[in-house]
UniProtKB/TrEMBL annotation:
The keyword NADP applies. Residues 10-320 form the Enoyl reductase (ER) domain. GO terms for cellular component: cytosol. InterPro entries: ADH-like_C, ADH-like_N, ER, GroES-like_sf, NAD(P)-bd_dom_sf, Quin_OxRdtase/zeta-crystal_CS. One of its GO terms (molecular function) is quinone reductase (NADPH) activity. This is Quinone oxidoreductase. It comes from Cytobacillus kochii. SMART domains: PKS_ER. Keywords: NADP, Oxidoreductase. The keyword Nuclease does not apply.
Length: 323
């Protein structure tokens, strides 16, 4: 089979399309013929060696959409021919991949493979951030950083579906405003002095909830526009910087910081994802949430896909067509 393999860390030049053997599923795994997969910022960090260490040839990719080609001897929930999305442990930039049945989910017929490949991380994550972690309430005001990306544009839609009064999105450049507003945000702003802009827009009240995947100075400045009893959910570190705040910024204002990792949850609490998937698929089928696909590339164009994300040029998800 064809697969994108890296044998060392580095720039996009380390990405190679190679012929390798089709993997075999173990007892609790399924073999999936991949139709489409996606590129996430975590793939960039993995390629650069910033997230995990690799030993020998490694396939990147966190999510895959395709058809089950074989099931392990102990698999009960799936059968050959089913359309699924999955989170393969050993990469998805390949024509075939294996995934544990607990991290594989049957997709409704109404959802095409492009949407399916683009959806799992951004939509499952957005749902968990807003519903399970932040416990967003009807009528709250929400600030979403990196709002033009896959998670950001999806979280905007979900926040509105869940009853947010106001949603504000931050981006790196004004050219991305249209993407943020099209997703349903009430205001799009750049990071420059964003806290002052947010406070002005909210008449000095600030926001009830902030979703932060940037960290660093963005995390620190977020406290300047977080309302009393407000929450920041920190779920990423695209700036590769550490954000620091004085603990006195928390107790007297009754504000809180919550951390979440979808990657950790997939490894440690996979059983919590199936109920999320069921609810998210309903939102996608009903059209309440539409995952924006910014660009589609073939497996052989994977370097372009990585460079687009690395240079912050993408809006929405980047999909790779494998079949």
């Amino acid at each position: 089979m064809k697969a994108v393999v890296i044998e060392s860390y580095g720039s996009s030049d380390v990405l190679q399309v190679m012929d390798i053997d089709i993997p075999r599923p173990s007892a609790h795994e399924v073999l999936i013929k991949v139709d489409k997969t996606s590129v996430n910022y975590a793939d960039i960090k993995n390629r650069q060696g910033l997230k995990k260490k690799i030993e020998g040839p490694t396939i990147l990719g966190l999510e895959a959409a395709g058809t089950i080609a074989e099931v392990g001897s102990e698999v009960k929930k799936f059968k050959v021919g089913q359309r699924v999305v999955s989170f393969p442990e050993k990469g998805s930039y390949a024509q075939y991949t294996v995934a544990n049945e607990a991290l594989t989910f049957a997709i409704p017929n109404e959802i095409d493979f492009t949407t399916a490949a683009a959806s799992p991380i951004v939509s499952f994550l957005s749902y968990q951030l807003l519903k399970d972690i932040a416990r967003m309430q009807l009528g709250e005001t929400v600030l979403i950083h990196a709002a033009a990306g896959g998670v950001g544009s999806t979280a905007i839609q979900m926040a509105k579906v869940f009853g947010a009064k106001t949603v504000i999105g931050t981006v790196s450049r004004e050219e991305k405003f249209s993407t943020v507003l099209a997703a349903g945000a009430d205001l799009a702003i750049t990071y420059e002095d964003f806290s002052s802009k947010v406070n002005e827009y909210t008449d000095g009240d600030g926001v009830n909830l902030i979703l932060d995947s940037v960290s660093g100075s963005v995390f620190e400045e977020s406290f300047a526009c977080l309302a009393l009893y407000g929450k920041i959910v920190h779920f990423g570190n695209t700036s590769n910087q550490t954000g620091r705040i004085p603990t006195t910024a928390l107790h007297s204002s009754c504000r809180s910081v919550l951390g979440f990792s979808f990657g950790t949850t997939r490894k440690k609490r996979p059983d919590t994802i199936k109920p999320v998937a069921d609810e998210v698929f309903k939102l996608l089928v009903n059209g309440d949430v539409q995952v924006k696909v910014g660009a589609e590339y073939s497996l052989y164009e994977v370097k372009k896909a990585h460079e687009m994300i690395e240079n912050r040029e993408n809006t929405g998800k980047i999909v790779l067509t494998v079949s």
